[in-house]
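Translate sequence into structure tokens.
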Amino acid sequence: MTTSTARPSDNIPPLAATAAAPTIQGPAPVLMSLPRRVAQLALGLVGFGVATAMMLHSGQGAMPWAVLDQGIVDRTGLAYGWVVFGVGLLVMLAWIPLRQKPGIGTVSNIIVISLVIDPTLWVLERLLPDPGLLAGIGLALGGIVLLGVSTAAYVGARLGPGPRDGLMTGLVHVTGWPVWLVKTAIEVSVVVLGVLLGGTFGWATVVFAFTVGPVVQVAARWLAPSGLAGHR
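Result follows.
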């Protein structure tokens, strides 16, 4: 007599066995509601303007784009707000080969940040007319962190990046490089040009150039659940 040693699973057709296997799915994408996106955009832009003013008033060195703005102000004699506005428009020209599309966030960036910086400087000059070393270090470091978080907030809202961050997200999309690397490369290049034009340079400028990218990357985990650079 021959004893059958067939196992129960041997009688299951291949297709049925495949269908019976559990399917492992990744986490569902996190979608943000429109009110949250609008709030992130507004708060991010205001925070960016405040952070820029904090670094300017610290006396420890401005952020790279502000170094460039200061250099242009020194060369032309134009008001700071107008320079920020004009540089933003010029940077948008670089969007053309990168195929970036402006949105409400793009226009808001140019307007809101230009309007927030001067009033914030006015307040800081009255609260801390001559910040000492410790206060200056606090303003500079606080400005770096706030600016990184603010960048992740308004870019993560995906209502259209600002001119400068549209340049960043466009290069991320084209090159495939990580955000922190692209952001750092842009900041270093801008600060060199700004110094050549006569902008203010200090230790805080160096720290900003090499740390704001990682701050944006970390903050994006919560503020940009859909990512900072979209696929087109």
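Note: The CA atoms of residues 175 and 182 lie 9 Å apart.
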